[in-house]
């Protein structure tokens, strides 16, 4: 089966916002005649942006894990927990299911995103036609799990708001949670700024 | 086919319009740069906050938890336990503590660390907050400048911290009593300090303790202060009645030290120096007594039984307690076959005040030895004797009383005997018993039978005498009384007559009134005569003149002359 024609080859350009397809008249800064939003053949500087955001997310992921995210005070017993120590504590205190959920949401998912996005970026920049469908699936996976990676932040925010019983029990957020939240936001921005069409932009050899 | 498609697809499609916008992709690299800056600042901050790491050894790691237990100074967290391990020889626990940078300078050689745990003692409860929050390590920051990283932790909190203001003093005592580290020190029943430490003396014959008196109370400790053990209840029964004396309920149970100035004026009183040494007395009364000075040992031989003389009984000289009995031993005298009792006593001559001072001076000037045995020999020759006296009639308790006995029999005195032997005289009760015996002897010699017979005879004689009196004397007496009665009635009649003569309507009374009127009239005519004679003395010679001229003023004669004026 021969390669399908690309929009560029057909001289077409589509609007990201309203979906209007225009004829590509090779202008410098084209804009949609209907909704006036900028038109791009591909997301501009997609790789550079994604890389920058990904690196920033990774840099912030380090303090997010090293610094404690939550302080639990119960009957005067002050306990500061990082993400990992919280997972360990949950596991040791007999809630392996909860520990698994937190571990997945807070460690597995961000790490997966880092790995997946950097794999996508590297493979797209090299222009290799290797496993394009699988890579596209990976991209969809990253988009999907992105919604759920704020779990830890939500937990801390909810507990802080709900558990305020003074001396008996109190939960307060610590700086780690801010870095974790920033990490999650940056990874989501990174996956958004990646243009999945780049996966298919290599030299057509296989199809 | 592929060539036509683009034309066919884009034939009637709209064309994009131009919209200028700033295009610059490199700004996105600011995001990782900022993230890197944040990370770097965190690392630098952590590095800058990093203080020294110290190791503290404890007997046990009870209540300590790695990564959780904190080190607090004045309730401020200044460090955290980061590791707990056993020492090489497994005898101790080494606690590794990361101190904060700001508290780095507390790791000096005289800083002390201890674990704050809940402690419940008789003196109170401390560290109750750690029941819930868990133990923490307390620190008392030293004043040294020499840094140190390995410390030996204290098992109990130090009672005196480096930054507490006040003074330390040293107390010597025979035993510790119920005192402990942290026991309170009272001044006029106000807690002003506490016992900081104690240790057995090197020779094992006493206890030396350090107390700490807080500022500003430390200025009340003077060189005249006396310290006593305020533990327990002091019950005294005296002439004033039963007296119960305690410092506070806590000291009754837990013990304490109290101090106060000795009674009396203190001309040389001044504030005690830091680390001044004092003696800790057993009771307040002992503490307030004048200083005892050097003890002396004396022995006394008694030949009579000493029931009621116990070890500890007081030894008095002329009523002043200056020692106590320390031993009561029986001996056998082969020569006489008696069982003498030797009573040993410790006396404190200083308690006799100036008497002892003067005697000592005299003895010294005469070249006497330290025991003043020759001087005492002189006193013995003058009648110094010891005597066992009854102190309490109910219980029969004896005490030793020394006094100068007049006309005491001469006794051989050995000035070289050690300890000095003071001769004795039999006790007052023995003497009393002896005298009572003599009295009873004398009483038994009285011929009560003969006395009774004589008395009987006398009474019979008396009886006959009374009979005689009744028979003869009384009738005569009755006659005499009747005569007297008559005489009295006659006297009564005489008085009635006199009374009627003096009544107002009696002729005697009227005659007297007439006579008085005559006399009055005579007196009046006599006065007229004297008046006349007074006015005209010549009448006495010439007789009465016809007319007496009136005194003349001359005014009527002057009237016509005044009226003749035209």
TrEMBL record, chain A:
Record field: transmembrane: 51-70, 98-123, 144-167, 173-190
The UniProt record lists the keyword Oxidoreductase: no
Coarse class of the protein's main subcellular location: membrane
UniProt-annotated location(s): Cell inner membrane
Keywords, alphabetical: Cell inner membrane, Cell membrane, Membrane, Transmembrane, Transmembrane helix
Protein name: Paraquat-inducible protein A
UniProtKB/TrEMBL annotation, chain B:
Keywords annotated in UniProt: Cell inner membrane, Cell membrane, Membrane, Transmembrane, Transmembrane helix
Domain of life of the native organism: Bacteria
Domain Mce/MlaD, residue spans: 51-140, 166-233, 296-403
Residue intervals passing through the bilayer: 27-47
InterPro entries registered for this protein in UniProt: Mce/MlaD, PqiA-PqiB_transport
Compositionally biased tracts (Polar residues): 554-566
Protein location: Cell inner membrane
Keyword DNA-binding in record: no
Region (Disordered): 537-566
Name used for this protein in its record: Mammalian cell entry protein
Organism (species): Dyella nitratireducens
Lineage: Bacteria, Pseudomonadati, Pseudomonadota, Gammaproteobacteria, Lysobacterales
């Amino acid at each position: 089966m021969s390669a399908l024609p690309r929009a560029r080859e057909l001289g077409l350009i589509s609007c990201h916002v309203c979906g209007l397809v225009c004829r590509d008249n090779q202008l410098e800064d084209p804009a949609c005649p209907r909704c006036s939003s900028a038109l791009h053949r591909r997301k501009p500087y997609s790789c550079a942006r994604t890389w920058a955001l990904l690196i920033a997310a990774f840099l912030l992921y380090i303090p997010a894990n090293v610094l404690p995210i939550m302080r639990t005070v119960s009957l005067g017993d002050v306990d500061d927990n990082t993400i990992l120590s919280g997972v360990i504590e949950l596991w040791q205190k007999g809630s392996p299911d909860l520990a698994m959920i937190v571990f997945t949401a807070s460690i597995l998912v961000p790490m997966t995103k880092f790995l997946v996005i950097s794999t996508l970026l590297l493979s797209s920049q090299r222009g290799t036609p290797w496993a394009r469908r699988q890579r596209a699936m990976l991209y969809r996976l990253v988009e999907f799990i992105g919604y759920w990676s704020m779990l830890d932040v939500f937990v801390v925010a909810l507990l802080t708001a709900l558990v305020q019983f003074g001396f008996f029990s109190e939960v307060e957020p610590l700086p780690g949670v801010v870095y974790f939240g920033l990490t999650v936001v940056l990874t989501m921005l990174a996956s958004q700024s990646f243009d999945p069409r780049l996966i298919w932009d290599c030299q057509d050899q296989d199809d | 086919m592929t060539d036509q498609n683009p034309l066919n697809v884009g034939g009637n499609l709209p064309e994009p319009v131009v919209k200028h916008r700033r295009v610059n992709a490199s700004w996105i690299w600011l995001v990782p740069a900022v993230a890197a800056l944040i990370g770097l600042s965190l690392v630098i901050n952590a590095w800058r906050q990093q203080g020294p790491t110290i190791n503290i050894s404890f007997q046990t790691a009870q209540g300590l938890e790695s990564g959780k237990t904190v080190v607090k100074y004045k309730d401020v967290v200044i460090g955290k336990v980061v590791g707990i391990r056993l020492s090489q020889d497994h005898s101790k626990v080494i606690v590794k503590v990361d101190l904060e940078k700001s508290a780095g300078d507390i790791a000096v050689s005289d800083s002390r660390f201890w674990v704050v745990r809940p402690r419940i003692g008789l003196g109170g409860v401390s560290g109750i907050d750690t029941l819930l929050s868990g133990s923490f390590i307390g620190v008392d920051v030293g004043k040294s400048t020499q840094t140190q990283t390995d410390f030996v932790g204290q098992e109990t909190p130090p009672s005196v911290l480096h930054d507490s203001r006040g003074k330390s003093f040293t107390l010597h005592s025979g035993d510790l009593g119920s005192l402990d580290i942290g026991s309170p020190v009272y001044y006029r029943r106000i807690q002003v300090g506490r016992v900081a430490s104690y240790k057995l003396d090197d020779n094992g014959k006493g206890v030396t303790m350090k107390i700490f008196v807080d500022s500003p109370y430390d200025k009340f400790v003077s060189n005249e202060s006396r310290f006593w053990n305020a533990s327990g209840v002091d019950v005294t029964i005296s002439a004033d009645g039963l007296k119960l004396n305690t410092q506070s309920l806590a000291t009754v149970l837990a013990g304490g030290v109290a101090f106060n100035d000795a009674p009396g004026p203190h001309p040389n009183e001044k504030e005690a120096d830091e680390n001044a040494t004092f003696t800790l007395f057993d009771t307040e009364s002992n503490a307030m007594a004048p200083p005892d000075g050097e003890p002396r040992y004396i022995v006394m031989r008694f030949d009579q039984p000493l029931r009621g003389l116990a070890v500890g009984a007081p030894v008095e000289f002329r009523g002043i307690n200056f020692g106590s009995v320390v031993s009561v031993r029986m001996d056998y005298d082969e020569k006489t076959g008696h069982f003498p009792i030797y009573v040993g006593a410790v006396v404190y001559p200083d308690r006799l005040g100036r008497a002892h001072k003067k005697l000592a001076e005299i003895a010294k000037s005469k070249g006497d030895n330290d025991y003043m045995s020759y001087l005492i020999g002189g006193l013995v020759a003058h009648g110094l004797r010891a005597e066992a006296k009854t102190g309490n009639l109910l219980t029969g308790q004896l005490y030793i009383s020394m006094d100068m006995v007049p006309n005491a029999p001469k006794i051989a005195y050995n000035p070289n005997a050690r300890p000095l032997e003071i001769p004795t005289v039999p006790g007052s009760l023995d003497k009393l018993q002896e005298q009572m015996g003599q009295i009873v002897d004398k009483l038994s010699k009285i011929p009560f039978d003969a006395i009774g017979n004589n008395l009987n005879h006398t009474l019979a004689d008396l009886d006959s005498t009374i009979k005689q009196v009744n028979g003869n004397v009384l009738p005569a007496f009755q006659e005499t009384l009747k005569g007297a009665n008559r005489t009295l009635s006659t006297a009564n009649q005489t008085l009635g007559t006199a009374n009627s003569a003096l009544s107002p309507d009696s002729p005697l009374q009227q005659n007297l009134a007439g006579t008085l009127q005559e006399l009055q009239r005579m007196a009046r005519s006599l006065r007229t005569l004297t008046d006349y004679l007074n006015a005209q003395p010549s009448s006495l010679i010439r007789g009465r003149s016809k007319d007496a001229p009136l005194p003349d003023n001359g005014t009527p004669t002057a009237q016509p002359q005044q009226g003749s004026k035209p």
